[in-house]
Design a protein that fits this description.
The protein contains twelve helices and eight strands. The protein has two domains: about 5-170, NAD(P)-binding Rossmann-like Domain (Rossmann fold), CATH 3.40.50.720; about 180-280, ProC C-terminal domain-like (ProC C-terminal domain-like fold, Orthogonal Bundle). It has helices at about 15-25, 40-50, 65-70, 80-90, 110-115, 150-160, 175-180, 185-200, 205-230, 235-240, 250-260, 260-285, and strands spanning about 5-10, 35-40, 55-60, 75-80, 100-105, 125-130, 140-145, 165-170. The structure holds NADP nicotinamide-adenine-dinucleotide phosphate. NADP nicotinamide-adenine-dinucleotide phosphate (NAP) binds near residues 11, 14, 59, 105 and 130.
């Protein structure tokens, strides 16, 4: 494998844009070695301006855009929506180099389903990233399918290491990754939303309430990452540290616990994992 891989990104959108930002920042490769595609010419133009040096083709202007993009690629990142991914995999199959590693970021669609649309033996890796990759603080679960070498696996992990924490997992663990990190930024946004809404009801201005909720999530997140990375503290330990006996935080946490907070989080995570499995059946049919 070359030191600087040639990368094709089919469907340069929100998620793959975040990944591309991270991999260029980490000098995994140069913009000139990346070819990307979109559906519409307008998106291709916008993404071309966002990533100078990257060649961005659109299916609207060139029917063979995806085939052209993958022809020289060492890595092919499939960034289209789950409903479009099998058709896209089938479309590019004849143009793939035999050693090109195909990487999916799609929720739900199983390796077995994708492998059925690709040439036999094509290296394939399923991943589940989350949107904080856009600010360099994401998490991605990486699950290589059969036939992926250690070098290919390291190459795929390097694509993400500039924009987040890489967690090697098995494909069976991906629904849990969806529940714990892929969908989880929205759980945190929901909490921030609820805090801001009720802060207004308690008398703060909407502007102050939103700023406070955002800064609190950021500050608490930074404390938690420091604590977990250093191994000196846990989420539970940090929580207990701010709960003075008979103080305000203790009262708030008791209200959460009395309301069944942990069970509610577990129900939400189960629902996300179940939907991922359901999507696997929908798109595998
Ligand atoms: N967003 C998340 O939180 C998240 C988390 C984990 C995984 N994912 C996965 O990421 C993937 C993309 O999601 P997204 O939110 O990033 O969507 P998005 O922003 O809408 O990006 C999709 C891209 O695919 C392009 N496209 C559509 N059909 C195409 C085709 N046939 N050939 C080439 N390009 C095509 C679109 O082009 P146009 O703009 O021209 O239509 C757009 O650039 C999904 O599979 C999703 O499951 C997303």
């Amino acid at each position: 494998m070359t030191a600087q891989p040639r990368i094709a990104i089919l469907g340069l959108g929100s998620m793959t844009g975040a990944i591309l930002t991270g991999l260029l920042a980490a000098s995994v490769t140069t913009p000139e070695r990346v070819v990307a595609t979109t559906r519409t010419a307008a998106s291709a133009q916008r993404q071309g301006e966002r990533f100078p040096g990257v060649r961005v083709l659109s299916g609207e202007q060139e029917a063979d855009a995806n085939l052209t993009a993958v022809a020289e690629a060492d890595v092919v990142l499939l960034g289209v929506k789950p409903k479009d991914i099998v058709v896209t995999a089938r479309q590019i199959a004849p143009a793939l180099r035999p050693k090109a590693v195909v990487v999916s970021v799609a929720a739900g669609v199983r390796a077995e389903t994708l492998a059925g649309a690709l040439p036999e033996g094509q290296p394939l890796v399923r991943t589940m990233p989350n949107t904080p990759l856009t600010v360099g603080s994401g998490v991605v679960g990486v699950a290589p399918a059969a036939g992926v070498t250690a070098d290919q696996r390291a190459l795929v992990e390097s694509l993400f290491s500039g924009s987040g924490v890489v967690v090697p997992v098995s494909e069976e663990q991906l629904p849990a990754v969806v529940a714990a990190s892929g969908s989880a930024p929205a759980y945190v946004f929901l909490l921030a939303e609820a805090i801001a809404v009720h802060a207004v009801e308690l008398g703060l201005s909407a502007e102050a309430a939103e700023a406070m909720a955002a800064a609190t999530v950021k500050g608490a997140g930074a404390m938690l990452v420091d604590a977990v990375t250093s191994g000196e503290q846990t989420a539970e330990g940090l929580r207990r540290a701010v709960m003075s006996p008979n103080g305000t935080t203790e009262r708030a946490i008791t209200a959460f616990e009395d309301g069944g907070f942990a069970g509610l989080v577990a129900d939400a995570m189960d629902a996300a994992a179940r939907r991922d499995e359901e999507m696997g059946r929908e798109f595998g049919a």
